[in-house]
Amino acid sequence: MQLRYETGLTGEAYVRAEAWRDARLERCPNHPHGGCSLARHGTYARKSPRGTKIARWYCPESHTTFSLLPECLAARLPGELDEVEQVVAHAEQAPSLAAAGDALRRDAVELAGAMRWVGRRVRLVHHVLKVVIGLLPEPLARCVAEMGAVRTRLQTETALRALRTRLAEQLPVLPAPLGFQPHRLGTTNRLRARQHKMGPDPPSALA
Fold first, then answer.
1. pLDDT per residue over 89-105, tens digit each?
2. Domain membership flag for residue 192
3. CB-neighbour burial class of residue 170 (10 A; exposed 0-12, middle 13-18, buried 19+)
4. Structural domain of residue 138, as residue ranges?
5. What is the pTM of this model?
6. Among 15, 36, 37, 123, which is disulfide-ready with 61 (CB 3.0 to 4.6 Å)?
7. Are residues 105 and 175 in the same domain?
8. Residue 191's pLDDT is what?
């Protein structure tokens, strides 16, 4: 289970300060009144920013691992929330997904891979924005579920981080990369793709 770790740091500063060493989980989320054996459970590494480590705890009574994710990092995607936001904002203004992929991934990735990389981030962010708009009717009433529109309403170029702060209590149930719930996009289609089509009934046995 992921939990928000409020550090006030960028990803680079988090790594430079090795801020995972200062992370504290005072009580078990599953046992807020105590009575369990919650203990530090080492760290795990993230690919980006390079050198990032995330502090973990383990509750043996509930068989649950907890990790403190710095508020600047995207959930279930590599990198920072700001980086994800910039990709989506760029893609919304690009003439096509191919143009966005070509501009944003100038490494060894082929165009098809770059398009998948950009498209996944666009789908995930647009999905969570639809959910968020319903939770924040005051600033986002009738707002289009796009990064550019949400930035304009919130008057910030770091809208995802601002939303994570505003919706801190809802993060456990909000989908990634803003919240900590795994997204469900495409699950139904993948399940359908795995199912076998029903063939004709076998011939009846002769009496």
1. 999 999 999 999 999 98
2. no
3. middle
4. 81-180
5. 0.85
6. 36
7. yes
8. 35
* 176 lies in the same domain as 89: yes
Strand order in the sheet with 64-70: 2-5, 64-70, 53-59, 39-45
Q: Are residues 65 and 17 in the same domain?
A: yes
Q: What tokens does 138 get? A: 């005051």
SS3 41: strand
Measured distance CA(105)–CA(113) in Å, rounded: 9
Which tokens sit at 55? Answer: 């502090």
Based on the fold, state whether residues 24 and 66 are members of the same structural domain: yes
Residue 188 inside a domain? The answer is: no
Q: 45 forms bridges with which residues in the sheet? A: 53
Distance of CA 87 to the CA centre of its chain: 14
* Structure-model confidence comparison of residues 185 and 94, the more confident one: 94
24-63 confidence digits (pLDDT tens)? 999 999 999 999 999 999 999 999 999 999 999 999 999 9
CB atoms closer than 10 angstroms to residue 107 = 7
Residue labelled with tokens 């504290």: 24
Count of domains observed in the chain: 2
Query: Among 27, 42, 70, where does a domain finish?
Result: 70
User: Is the domain of 152 the same as that of 132?
Assistant: yes
